[in-house]
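Reviewers of the previous submission asked for a worked example of the structure-prediction workflow described in the proposal, so we include one complete record here. The input consisted solely of the amino acid sequence. No template or homolog information was supplied to the procedure at any stage.
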Amino acid sequence: MDIYEQPKFCFLIANISTVVLASVFVKRVERVKREKAHSVLRAFGFSFQTAWQSSGLIQR
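From that input alone, the workflow returned the following structure tokens.
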């Protein structure tokens, strides 16, 4: 491998790993947000949850 292509290769690997880590983190954050939203809806009561579902904001 040429000495000029090696940094590009390392940079590419770093980019890929960063993207993978970011996507995993985002999925985890979204899951936590969804769980919090569901617990908030349960705290507000079933009528509030039904209203949100009927408005289409939450798909089951």
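The radius of gyration is 21 Å. We consider this example representative of the routine output the project will generate in years two and three.
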